[in-house]
Amino acid sequence: MTSLDALNRAPDEHAAEQLEACNASPRWVGEVLARRPYPDAESLLRTAETAARHLEWSEVCVALAAHPRIGDRASGQGTEARWSRQEQGTVATSDDGTRAALRAGNEEYERRFGHVFLIRAAGRSADDMLAELQRRLGNDEARERAEVTEQLAQITRLRVERLLAG
Predict the structure, then answer these.
(1) Is this model's pTM higher than 0.85 or not?
(2) Using one digit for the tens of pLDDT, what is the confidence trace for 57-97?
(3) Max Cα distance, the chain (Å)
């Protein structure tokens, strides 16, 4: 269990390992670490979200590399993999047609944009994620990068909340 106090007091290396499960961008981890100690959870959450929204695209791509495709089961036993499996839980229980459409949409998206489709899966049904995937395939590159960055910021905030909750 990680409390705010424990995160504030942890050695940089240990705190960085915990934060990397929230956002794999080294720049993001560094910025969040550099602002410790946080007086309260909301200060940490605001910093985490803002830092994620201001990452350069190359750093967003580093964070993207840690995310599995929507519909693919994250491998490994680490915190990030466990959270990904939980966040995408609705896909596993969706019908065969939805899962097939997600696979096909992921492939088309990756051909078009060159990276995985990123969406805050927590709180969304598989059908909702599929509809968003299909909508976002119509974006131009600049618009899609903005949407990816926003989704990363939302995911980051949710994961920092989970980290603090244990």
Answers:
(1) yes
(2) 999 999 999 888 876 654 556 666 555 555 555 566 678 89
(3) 48
Closest by CA to 95, choosing from 68, 130, 147, 47, is 130
Burial letters 48-74, b for 16+ CB under 10 A, else e: bbebbeebeeebbebbbebbbbbbeeb
Residue 110 has, within 13 A of its CA and on its CB side, a CA count of 13
Q: Cα separation of 124 and 134, whole Å?
A: 15
Query: pLDDT of 7-34, one tens digit each?
Result: 999 999 999 999 999 999 999 999 999 9
One-letter amino acid of 89: G
Report whether 129 contacts 151 (CB < 8 A). Answer: no
